[in-house]
Amino acid sequence: MIRRLVCTVALTGLCVAGLAATAAAQLEPNLGALTEENAKGYLGPLTGALSTTMNSAVFHSGYVPKTGLNFEIGAHVMGMTFDDEDRLYVPANPPGYEDIDDVDAPTVIGDTKSVTVVGNAQQEITYPGGFDIENFTVAAPQLMIGSVAGTRAVVRWVSFDLGDTDLGKFSLWGVGAQHSITQYFQNAPVDVAVGFLYQQFKIGDDDLLDANMFHVNVTGSKRFGVLEPYVGLGLDSFSLKTKYDTDSSPDEEDLFEVEFDNETNEHITLGVRASLAFVMAHAEFNMAAETGVAVGLSFGTSGGQAQ
């Protein structure tokens, strides 16, 4: 069992690192050709995608044992599909470029071809292409361990060196907790718990992309044999910053920093978990900043189940 678990988590981490290295290798030079306002338009689709996926697949049950040693460790995969309107944005004219008609330029998920426009004084500007991405998927290992006074801890962590891309590290870490509400009521018809998770996602030693996420959630569930349907109601908070060299300022000590406005979105989760001996699997549908799905496989023991 331990060998299978290690392989699962390792493969998950390698997938994440590989995707990050591939995209990030070209991302910084693409951003370097953009002003602050246009960088926000270019990266705009990533805010909803990261907020939805990274704040999914956290809590899969409303049952938290009151006391005793229990744990779940495994890997979760969260994904969503972009809409066609996410593939383009209307860039603002940079300083010194006047009378350029509105043009549609590709976002980070749009067409790989760049767009070049010319102003009335033969001023030329090129907007970089995207990566032609239709689906966005993130994978993360997760540990849940408890319980003390009906409370258990939640931890997510993965870190990889992106190697020859010269972009430093990809890292994700998160910490949170889930607390049983059912323990305060006798003969409750369902199990209910409240939880939260704070996460940070980074690419690059100089924080090329730096995202911070906070998810708070109330989960209700009821077990029927090996199956346990669950519903989650919560809120997501998301912020994103990027630092990069511009074409006009390639000095590493003078990085261009763009900070996106904080976003808060409601998050509704509908899912089902299956438990058999020491193996647990779940699948869920999420409605948040975007709509998405998630699946996961864990090993461990939940410490029993309230009936």
Radius of gyration: 22 Å
The 3D shape can be described as: elongated
Reported CATH architecture: Beta Barrel
- Compute the separation of the termini in Å: 28 Å
Strand order of the largest sheet: 1-6-7-8-9-10-11-13-14-15
Fraction of residues in β-strands: over 45%
Contiguous helical run count: 2
Number of individual domains? 1
Mean pLDDT: 84
CATH topology: Porin
CATH class category label: Mainly Beta
Low-confidence stretches at least 5 residues in length (pLDDT < 50)? 1-22
Structure class:
alpha+beta
Number of strands: 15
- One letter per element, helices H and strands E, the order comes to HHEEEEEEEEEEEEEEE
| Helix share bin | 10-25%
Largest sheet data: 10 strands, antiparallel, barrel
Describe, in plain words, how this protein is organized in 3D.
By secondary structure, the chain is an alpha+beta fold. It has a single domain, classed as Porin. Helices cover 16% and strands 47% of the residues. It is built from two helices and 15 strands. The longest helix is centred in the N-terminal third of the chain and has 31 residues. The N terminus is likely disordered.
Topology, pairings included?
Elements: H1 2-32, H2 36-54, E1 70-81, E2 88-89, E3 105-106, E4 115-118, E5 124-127, E6 135-148, E7 151-161, E8 169-180, E9 191-203, E10 209-221, E11 227-244, E12 256-259, E13 263-276, E14 279-287, E15 291-301
Antiparallel strand pairs: 1-6, 1-15, 2-3, 4-5, 6-7, 7-8, 8-9, 9-10, 10-11, 11-12, 11-13, 13-14, 14-15
